[in-house]
Amino acid sequence: MDKKHRKKLLKSAVGIAVAVPTFFLFLNGCVADKVIFQPPSRHLFTVPLIYLEVEPGLRIALRYLPPAGNGSLVILYSHGNAEDLSYMENYLQEFRFRGYGVAAYDYEGYGQSDGKPSEANAYRDIERVYRFLTDEEKIAPERIVIYGTSVGSGPACYLAEKVPAAALVLEAPFTSAFSVINLGWLPGDRFPNLRRIGNIRMPVLIIHGDRDSVVPFSHGKELYDKANEPKKFYHVKGAGHNNIHPTAGEEYWSVLSGYLSEKR
To answer: Is 241 a catalytic residue?
Structure first.
């Protein structure tokens, strides 16, 4: 191979080496949030909502069911993908029936919330709800349970790393968003839960179904292994990604209340 040909090949190789990661960075920056977040079609919502301003002219929707007593725990709930508050009223009322207060919100771009969904916006949304509870409702941090389901595990872990709370509960969580499809090695990953969980200093309960075909069961186990004590892993046998509560039945509430009670 002559010198001119080698130089041409080297130049092509360098070009590819630069172009490929640049393409992935562009793809991640422009497309990742649109792939990760899948808001459902908007539905008419008939129960009372509170609207919290996250920036001037931009509000998110909150369904707040106050706790029955001054000492009751309040669940700060981050829901899963492809759902919004209009799907959740019966579930939220069940929390209240069990003696908890609950504050569930829609991410920007979901339900009645303004804006567009993204990782950064989900973080500011959950921080705004936490401030609503602590600053406006005067709920002490030790009475707040940060609870995240599926994609909601991302903002939940983010908040739990930053602020005090009674406990963190993760249901069907992932180690990171890209890792769900075995692309965690790509630059620009979203919701790095596995990296965060070792920094979280509060009781952790992880709930996962062993037939989860969306977020593999191994994600929950990996997060549990890296979490600090005190911690508990609740293995829901036969449950997939979206049917943990009906599969577990009363046992779900027994495990949740038992763990939260003994950690208070």
So the answer is: yes
